[in-house]
Amino acid sequence: MPRLNHCIALLAFAIALSATLLASGISGISFASASNTITATLTVAAVCTVVLSNTAINFGSVPVTGNAPTTNAVADTNGGGVPANILLDGTNWVSGGNSFFASNTIWDFTTHAGGVSGNTLALAPGNIVDTENVIGAGQLVNTYFGAQIPAQQAVGTYTQTITVENKC
Q1: 99 phi and psi angles, rounded to 5 deg
Q2: 51-167: which CATH number, 3.30.420, 2.60.40, 3.30.870, 1.10.1760?
Q3: Confidence of residue 130 (pLDDT cuts 50, 70, 90)
Q4: H or E element that contains 18
Q5: In the chain, what is the straight-line distance between the N-terminal and C-terminal CA atoms, in Å?
């Protein structure tokens, strides 16, 4: 019981002290605070796309040391809203255990019906080449491909993967 009396007396003192503090204009205890600001940045990236007119080129049957003229067109359409640079690379040509170099593929933005003329294709991956040709937003650019068959190349049906990238 003495403990309860002691608690009641302490509570009465706290109420009296609060009333005195309120009457004297002190309404509460304030704590010191600090603030700072953060600047957030966000860049909305421009979008360009690549849509190819065909995804298969058939050079037909070409003899050893022969050429497939640079006439096989692939139309690249940039469906995005900003211009883009056209980048190209490709794998080596492979047929079973035989192969020859990606650089035997020739590309150009002009057709060469009389033969193979233009630029050599870079070996993928990691060597993609900026063709320095810009394709506008919503525009179409034809890239023409040809091939040169090395001397003493083994006969066979060879395949190659060519990557066309529009970079904005």
Answers
A1: -155, 165
A2: 2.60.40
A3: very high
A4: helix 2-23
A5: 84
